[in-house]
Amino acid sequence: TQLLEQSPQFLSIQEGENLTVYCNSSSVFSSLQWYRQEPGEGPVLLVTVVTGGEVKKLKRLTFQFGDARKDSSLHITAAQPGDTGLYLCAGAPAGNNRKLIWGLGTSLAVNP
Amino acid sequence: DAEITQSPRHKITETGRQVTLACHQTWNHNNMFWYRQDLGHGLRLIHYSYGVQDTNKGEVSDGYSVSRSNTEDLPLTLESAASSQTSVYFCASSESRVSQAFFGQGTRLTVV
After folding, report:
1. N or C: which terminus of chain A carries fewer CB neighbours within 10 A?
2. List of chain A residues whose C-beta atoms are within 8 Å of the C-beta of residue B105
3. CA pair distance A78, B112, nearest whole angstrom
4. How far apart are CA A19 and CA A79, in angstroms?
5. Contact A23, A38 (CB under 8 A)
6. Which residues, listed in sequence order, are joined to residue A102 by a DSSP beta bridge?
7. DSSP codes joined into one string, B55-75
8. Per-residue DSSP letter, B17
9. Cβ-defined contact of B103 to A43 (cutoff 8 Å)
10. What is the pLDDT of residues B40-66, one digit of tens each?
11. What sign does the dihedral A24-A25-A26-A27 (CA atoms) show?
12. How many whole angstroms separate alpha carbon B38 and alpha carbon B89?
């Protein structure tokens, strides 16, 4: 069974702090997606990374795909209350394009 | 703009009743998915469809069924609702099987 493990599961920080969340697996993925889900809404895609070692930036968010395409990280600089939400990673297994594999998510609370 | 809509947004039903949750997308996507989201379990795949007349079981399909008679709709039926099926249900669609998933806003189902 292919798994994506996200850590930490919960994170509560003050506005202005930096943070990193991780998405790890023992399996190789052809691509990996990061979503943010706000309360009462469905997840919304933030970014897709497809190349080992790739780094993508979205304003204060930096996404990295591991060289071996087994892991990814999301770094937020100077977090703001608007960053509060559930961050989910989802991977497309290499050699098997039937469906995405989802992590359990990291619940982030940024306090003013 | 294309969208994916779920109805109802909230529903309370009694144990043993049949319940159908609607999902309608205007993306013209072949791939559609039903998930349930529960604390501690993340998004779990119930059923999915890769096109008209195609349906497949996900990891938690017991007690649920789907049918795909057209591209736009994938209704989810709970044959005989049980308290264990109290959850938030999300429908999603995607252009390819593992590309960006577009989610509906969810249906909060309570079985009493």
Report:
1. N
2. 40-42
3. 44
4. 8
5. no
6. A90
7. EEE-TT-TTEEE--SSSSB--
8. -
9. yes
10. 889 999 999 999 999 999 999 999 999
11. negative
12. 9
Write out the two tokens for A56.
Answer: 């993508």
User: What's the full length of chain A, in residues?
Assistant: 112
B7, B100, B105, B108: best mutation site toward chain A, by most A Cβ within 10 Å?
B100
Task: For tokens 């290499």, name the residue.
Answer: A94
Amino acid (one-letter) located at A41: E
Q: Tens-digit pLDDT profile for chain A (112 aa)?
A: 568 999 999 999 999 999 999 999 999 999 999 999 999 999 999 999 999 999 999 999 999 999 999 999 999 999 999 999 999 999 999 887 788 999 999 999 999 9
- Token pair listed for A29: 């993925």
Cis peptide before A8 (omega within 30 of 0): yes
DSSP assignment string, A37-99: E-TTS--EEEEEE-STT-EEEETTEEEEE-TTSSEEEEEESS--GGG-EEEEEEEEETT--S-
Pairing of strands A71-76, A55-58: unpaired
Which residue type is seen at B106? G
- What the block records as the tokens of A36 is 């943010």
